[in-house]
Design a protein that fits this description.
Blueprint: H1 3-8, H2 12-15, H3 17-29, H4 35-39, H5 45-55, H6 60-70, H7 76-108, H8 110-135, H9 141-145
Length: 151
């Protein structure tokens, strides 16, 4: 086989039993999607669902029902990776905007921010010192009457 024939050959995964059923279900529901477009995708439920969501005007529930009916369940590693990606998509924008806001305030009011940092550090130091002395055992009233060498 030449290199051009190898490049146009479909991947083995799309020829496997569960993925060929997924392909048939997609062609039944959306006949305008060609084999070339599907074979360019990896055999991954999330990738296929994302492609169908962008390429068709179907609802997410409909796409999931068509794909997940026949697609094999993803491995645990894929599931954890997908959850991590979703979490990063939801958490990153608020954190980025909060960091930008802090940078803006520090740039606009450096004296006020320095004062807050000083007072906060002083308060933490006082609390840590109080916790340290409170954690040390205190002698009982009778032991305080004894000389230090007898305690």
């Amino acid at each position: 086989m030449s290199q051009t024939e190898q490049a146009t050959e479909t991947p083995f995964e799309w020829k496997s039993e569960p993925w060929s059923r997924v392909k048939d279900a997609i062609h039944t529901r959306w006949p305008h999607i060609g084999d070339e477009e599907l074979h360019s995708l990896p055999c991954d439920r999330d990738a296929v669902e994302k492609f169908l969501g962008e390429y068709t005007k179907a609802s997410a529930e409909e796409i999931e029902s068509v794909v997940r009916e026949y697609a094999p369940a993803p491995t645990l590693l894929n599931q954890v990776n997908h959850v991590g990606e979703q979490l990063a998509e939801r958490v990153t924008p608020p954190i980025t905007s909060a960091v930008d806001r802090v940078r803006y305030e520090v740039d606009e009011h450096p004296g006020t921010i320095t004062g807050f940092a000083f007072v906060g550090g002083l308060a933490l130091g006082i609390l840590a010192t109080a916790a340290y002395f409170r954690a040390r055992p205190q002698p009982s009233p009778y032991q305080q009457l004894l000389p230090p060498r007898w305690r």
